[in-house]
Amino acid sequence: MVQFFHNTIVRAVADDDNIPLYRFDFIQLHFLEQFRSNAVLPDVVGLVVNEVGDSIEIEDKWGQRIQIKFWNDCFVEYSKQKDLLSDSTKPFFIVVTSTMVKEFNGKLNLCTSSSTKIYINLEVSEVVELKGILSEKLENTTIGKLDIQHTTMNAEDIASKTIDISTLMNHVQKTVEKDLIFYCKAKVTKVFGENSWYYISCPGCKRRITPRKTDFWCIPCEKKTERPIPRYRLEFGVLDHSGSTIFVIFDEEAKKLIGQDASTLFEANIYEKATSNNDDSDNDDEVQIPKIIENNIGRELLFKVKITAYNRKIKRQTFTVMKIIDPTFIEGNDKETKDKEMEDNLKDGSDSKEDTNDSSNDTSKKSKDEKVVDNKKRPHDGSDTKEDNNDSPNDTIKKAKA
Ligand SMILES: [Zn+2]
């Protein structure tokens, strides 16, 4: 990835035949598994064989198939290019760049990222080659209807659990025996910098790690680490008609929202700082929030949030976000699209491991299969399991409030 900074200079140059107009890093669909970390966003090329709503299925030259889900702008771009085809009912070739590899029910899928570019029937050698191989397929076939697995959780379920911010706050006052799950549609108004946008974590257990004089010490793992890794912890100020509060978003969800992982952004940020000799850095305490995160200010999103006993104990009211959904996917009238989105929800149901709270979270595993996790009691305090409580920077939260 090439990142531009405020001091990057871009100059136009004359066309040069040595520099190709397009440059792709196509990967065989067969090897997608290796790209699940999202560190590299693979480019794919194939024939569109099935389609439904904002999802398509492509086939590569080896006959391997994969589903791709287009997010917002990508879907608009896809539809735009498709409209230009003389006959969009027949299979056509597509290049989709910078995709993200996701898993659902043991099956890999792709979705678009913020860097994705789409090209339909682009005249590049890979497409020409594919055309030769799949020419028979193109003869008398039409694009099929993509069969997406349905789940019991649907838009109505979300609607029935959607509340406004003031109602959410009221729920915190009540005695909470078990976790409660709600959905809240709110606008992002601010990204708080006081507690930074990331935390330094142990690569083993992914929990917050304590810096020592010369190295880092992970208390749960009882060992030192040479290379701690930054993970996201974003504090979004959010607002709706009824009030405002703070939603805390952890690594997995933040990564999806931002489109790159925290370590990549962290390195870019350090580099930017180093290259721009900051004379005006009077406020060293306040961590500068990277622009790519601040870009979310003004967006209206549907947040799946959790209320736990922990929420009642803290002074500064925050809520842990389990999932962020683009509300247009719920409001759209395409039922299939909705179900696909819900399916994505469930797929990522492990997000409860992003729990910030000071109690363990034994429900995270189960939440993959169960639609809602609020029917599980959980033990409190101190019974953390390493795996489930990955992101808990509890100590720091407490410290920060102290
Ligand atoms: Zn550790």
From TrEMBL:
Domain spans labelled Replication factor A C-terminal: 182-325
Region (Disordered) location: 335-402
Source superkingdom: Eukaryota
Biased composition (Basic and acidic residues): 335-356, 363-389
Molecular function per GO: DNA binding
Statement: the UniProt record of this protein carries the keyword Zinc: yes
Keywords, sorted A to Z: DNA-binding, Metal-binding, Zinc, Zinc-finger
InterPro entries in the record: Euk_RPA1_DBD_C, NA-bd_OB-fold, Rep_factor-A_C
Family according to the record: Belongs to the replication factor A protein 1 family.
Name used for this protein in its record: Replication protein A 70 kDa DNA-binding subunit C isoform X1
Gene label: LOC110780325
